[in-house]
Design brief:
231 residues; tt1808, chain A; 6-stranded mixed β-sheet; 6 helices; 13 strands
Length: 231
């Protein structure tokens, strides 16, 4: 009779295309500390490939600089870089960036006892290779269904940025104003020069944010948040 060698029990690794429950996905992800990014979208595992500098790392940094500058001047708004977000039983995305409000300020997400985001943040941003990726297909549908109010996708190879807002139960393009600037409907004063961003002109992007931060609508938003926090 053949005797097979005894080996310690180990969890199977996460692999692209695996179909898992959220609980099993979290269990395997926690057992793989060397893995930097994996997501569960509609019950299917998506493991990120190695991230290149010009097509992901640098655009990602520019988006985060844009969000961080806004948060620095907007008490009550919180920013996250690559957070794991528990949305529903089949979806555990890890977006490139988020802005969120705490529940007491009107936000729909919270921080769990084990330090994960649970529920939909108000704004999600993603860096995507092109329109063919999951960011503009399944993930967009998941974000819409879970009530994420605004969703921005930078398609680096196509040199374009799409910014959607939730209107009833569908995503609608956030159109720029007459001056060519896009303005968040959820976070007053969060302004974006999409042309400057895709051209890599970070100085112009941040200058436009500063204009937004000096606007009357941003001041009113900050005062409203402060009044709630002080109540």
């Amino acid at each position: 009779m053949t005797t097979f060698p005894r080996t310690p029990l180990t969890l199977p690794p996460l692999e692209n295309g695996d179909r898992l429950s959220r609980a099993e996905f979290e269990r395997r992800y926690a057992a793989m500390p060397q893995m930097k990014k994996a997501e569960l979208i509609e019950g299917i595992v998506h493991v990120a490939a190695a991230l290149r500098f010009g097509s992901h790392a640098e655009p990602h940094s520019f988006l985060m600089a844009w969000l961080v500058l806004y948060v620095a001047a907007t008490s009550g708004v919180r920013v996250g870089d690559n957070p794991t977000v528990r949305l529903d039983p089949d979806n555990l995305p890890q977006p490139d960036g988020i802005l969120r409000l705490e529940p007491e300020l009107g936000g729909r997400s919270r921080i769990s006892s084990d330090d994960y985001v649970e529920g939909p943040p108000e704004l999600v941003v993603e860096v995507s290779a092109s329109t063919a990726t999951v960011d503009l297909q399944d993930k967009k549908a998941v974000y819409r269904r879970n009530g994420i109010q605004e969703y921005l996708v930078w398609q680096v190879f196509d040199r374009k940025i799409d910014w959607f807002y939730l209107d009833a139960d569908r995503y609608v393009d956030l159109e720029p104003g007459d001056d060519g600037l896009c303005r968040s409907r959820v976070f007053p004063g969060l302004w974006l020069d999409r042309g400057a961003m895709v051209q890599g002109n970070l100085a112009q992007v941040l200058a436009v944010v500063q204009q937004g931060l000096q606007s009357s609508e941003h001041q009113a938003f900050v005062e409203r948040l402060q009044s709630i926090q002080g109540a």
